[in-house]
Amino acid sequence: FYVPAGGDIPDPALNPKFEHKLQFLDEMKACEPLHPRGDDRHILVGDLNVAPYENDVWSHKQLLKVVSHTPVECEKLLAAQAHGEWFDVARERIPQSEKVYTWWSYRAADWTVGDRGRRLDHIWVSRALKDQVSDFRILRDARGWERPSDHVPVTVTLEV
Questions:
Q1: What 3 state SS string does 83-143 have?
Q2: Which helix (H) or strand (E) element contains residue 46?
Q3: How many distinct structural domains can be found in the chain?
Q4: Residue 105 contacts residue 54 (beta carbons within 8 Å)
Q5: Is the residue at 6 inside a domain?
Q6: What percent of the chain has pLDDT over 90?
């Protein structure tokens, strides 16, 4: 699943890409076929382009006005998650008090210096699969590979 990045300016009046992202997040919440119900066994995996929690970014205060961590984006993504009764595997397995990143900008000369990451990649599972998760990993070392993506692989093992 992919949520549009939203450009660089976090103002829907000035940035049509950000306006589109906010509308997309609203549609994501409203799209009933996207959300599991009852005993549905669903998984939502993707680049959701929102780091919803304080420790999903390297500096909560410095990124409050940066696209991917603005309060409006975080609220809308978390509203879609709650509406679908989705479980965020990363935050089920890693306490919210810990920093967790899956993305580091190409703009930084050395991504390891300062460790200025964000958690933009998510794995959500339905209630029926929540207790079936046996492993979760963020392959951080992949960011250091030759010609890497700015995103690293995120994996889950389910016992089904």
A1: HCCCEEHHHHHCCCCCCCCCEECCCCCCCCCCCCEECCEEEEECHHHHCCEEEEEECHHHH
A2: strand 43-47
A3: 1
A4: no
A5: no
A6: 92
The residue segments making up the domain with residue 74 are 16-158
Residue 59: inside a domain: yes
Residue 7 in any domain: the answer is no
Q: Do 72 and 121 form a contact (C-beta atoms < 8 A)?
A: no
Phi and psi of 87, rounded to 5°? -110, 125
Report the C-alpha gap between 91 and 69 in whole angstroms.
Answer: 16
Q: What is the pLDDT of residues 93-151, one digit of tens each?
A: 999 999 999 999 988 778 888 899 999 999 999 999 999 999 999 999 999 999 999 99
143 vs 103: CA distance, rounded Å: 8
Could you give phi then psi for residue 55, rounded to 5 degrees?
-90, 15
Q: Contact 51/45 with Cβ under 8 angstroms?
A: no
123 domain residue, yes or no? yes
The CATH number for 136's domain is 3.60.10.10
- pLDDT of the residue at 41: 96
